Amino acid sequence: MLTKQNLRDIKKLAIAIDHDAAFGGKSKGNKHLLRVVAIVEFMAKKMEADLPIAVAGAFLHDTALPTGDDYNYETNKKIVKSILKPLCLSKDDVDQIAECVASHEGTAKAKSLEAKIVHDADVLEKTGILGIIRHTWKLVHSPKTLNLDSDVTLSKNVFEHLQWRASRLQTILAKNIHHYLTQGIDMSPDFAQKLVSFIRPLAKQNIITENIAKELEQILTERECKKLEEQLSLEYLNKKFKF
């Protein structure tokens, strides 16, 4: 069983990787990891999952990012197990955490409730306007990104990726949250292209998600700004959702 000290150690490791190693440190200061952890805590408590395992998986879910590819299930597992080795956790705890990390991108079906929750929390961060910002930023800084020189091609990739991620949602709770976050927002290819054209040059300057969001407000409607702010502040977690 994971202890509070284990979780503190895991948090420290995860933040160091996310801020200093992922994308060569260009995303330092972004709050994605902390939002995912908060969403996971919310969902895990509602669904009576193993909270420490789910939280550990949430903190570590992006540990493969420094390799330039966090979509490979087996590679993700190997990386996180290697990272956890110095902590001397039980094999069962390591295996459960590794499952959360390995399946978080939706390229393999999550095998546990905790893994489903981590996966879905990450999808909720790739939802709506925040999702467009985050995936545009990731593609701009991904070494394996090919043939995305034009805003049209890049926005098509972003739009299709967000649709694909949404289609992979595992839990009713996350599906209901996703519906709320996109309700009343024009999540069309044209809207995605408009935002991507604005976001791309800012991402190239290594401006982090939260600061891009502030700049983006100048071209968003009042309703769109409110939805984006709800995502960044996680205010929506105060609402009641069926699960």
UniProtKB/TrEMBL annotation:
The record, for InterPro entries, names: HD/PDEase_dom (IPR003607), HD_domain (IPR006674)
Source organism of the structure: Candidatus Andersenbacteria bacterium RIFCSPHIGHO2_12_FULL_45_11b
Q: Where are the transmembrane segments?
A: none
State the name under which the record lists this protein.
HD/PDEase domain-containing protein
The segment(s) forming the HD/PDEase domain are 25-136
